[in-house]
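Hello K.,

You asked for the raw outputs rather than the summary table, so here they are, unedited. I folded two proteins back to back in the same session to keep the settings identical. This is the first:
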Amino acid sequence: MSELHKLRVFLCHASQDKPTVRELYQRLNTEDWIDPWLDEEKLLPGQDWDMEIEKAVGSSAAVVVCLSNNSITKEGYIQKELRFVLQIADEKPEGTVFVIPLRLNDCHVPRRLRGWQYVDFFPNDRREWAYKRLLESIKLHSAPPARDRKLSRILTKDEQSLIDLANNARKRAYAPYSNYKVGAALLTKSGRIYTGVNVENAVYPNTICAERVAVYNAISEGEIEFEKIAVVTDNGGSPCGGCRQVLAEFGLDTIVLIANGEGRLVQETTVAGLLPGAFTPKDLVS
């Protein structure tokens, strides 16, 4: 399976537990649907540790928090990682399995993690059972709630291509003030594709979003019937209200693919889903 379609699983751990966590990483890495993230394997020389850890956690489908007598008593980076993990978990939809505590030995589970069911990765003769339980938990992420069911499917080649076009366009965004670059790629019903990027302005209200640039590019070429739009930001942010209203002008059934900077789909919906009760041209008919 393509790396873009694998579920990223971040392994949060204390350095003293590295041998056991490394073993777990190697096992997860054999699964063709999982992209495990371990610092010693993923970080490159010269990369900013804090920044890369935050990016990895933010883009992960699940975080396995490896607990031991080492990690729960150690002050320092693992506690910082854990605070960030819990912050991200708070932003996830209610009922989503995001944090998975994994006890490596008979240690106490910190109070702030007691809201999640843990699994014991010990003793050694129990590890195979524990590993299977861990996989079952991670798989819950590939079967999200019904309203988001499409997130778990593999993208078609054309859909991934549309996301890639938006992501490539994003590199050309003019965002010197927010540094929040957005790219969009709009597929019309005639089969043509129009891209757009956000263009900021020193007079802030004059800033224009990538989605609207793509729409206006299409309109300037006589295209007003849209099939699908891909929107890419670094963190998979959703279109703003103004862009939702502009898209609604040309049809509520337009499919919206929202992806992050790695080209990974984080949400699939429609304009109607983004803007319930939209005010459209038909509402002006007396």
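The second followed immediately with the same parameters:
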Amino acid sequence: MSAQKSSSENRPIGSGKEGSKSEGADRIPHETKRGSLVVIGTGIRIVGQLTLEAIAWMQIADSLLYVVADPVAEAVIKHLNPTGADSLARYYEEGKLRIHTYNAMVEHILRCVRAGNKTVAAFYGHPGVFAYPSHESIRRAKSEGFPARMLPGISSEDCLFADLGVDPATWGCQSYEATDFLLSSSLIDPSSQLILWQVGLLAELTHKSQQFDTRAMPLLVQKLTQFYPLSHPVTLYQAAMLPGTDPLIVQIPLYSLAEIPITAGMTLYIPPAWARVPDPAMLQLVSLIMG
């Protein structure tokens, strides 16, 4: 779908980029100014992973709101739209509950949409993966009658499959947020691959800019030993974020997981521990049906 301007999408009242200032935008009746929302992903490494479609939307946005994880990504965004670019990172505060931060971002995005701005919200990685503000912004914008959509981006999972050389279709792949996995009664299949996201934020509900609390890590190891031997190899992974850098790949035995320094951006990959066992009864039924 082309991101070119169309007559069906009204520009903000005023000349040029007058509507680009996103902070403090007032709610204006829908019949006067028609706002819209497009949520995009910048990829993990913006240089090379930002799609042409995402670039086009960023360039024509009245309000280009963004949350990215490195200065290169921020510089690229500001270059694409110098007058409309506005970081939402200011809502992060040390020790502040992340859900409060996310809700503040959602409110900011919606203020821009209600003001009649062609609003683009850019989140690093895939905008629909571990990104509550993106989904909630779209849901609320649609509920208020505004057009809203999401464009796909490259996630950490995409980078993991490439960097570790694993295929989710080979043995199947299970995926959980690490804290959710720890606190729930989830049952997993150790003959399949397992990915635990945000393992560096295990049981941590507040924002931390420097130090990460890993006191709950022994509990995660304890739970994983219900399904895997203590000596089973696991991999801590973090995708490369900057051009010319390599991903972080650390393979250790499961029992060492609680002893390794972990950062917020790390993902835990666990390969299968056992061979998959075929179902003889189902094999016989399939054979009968298929001949």
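The first strand starts at residue 36 and ends at 41.

Happy to rerun anything if the numbers look odd on your end.

Regards,
P.
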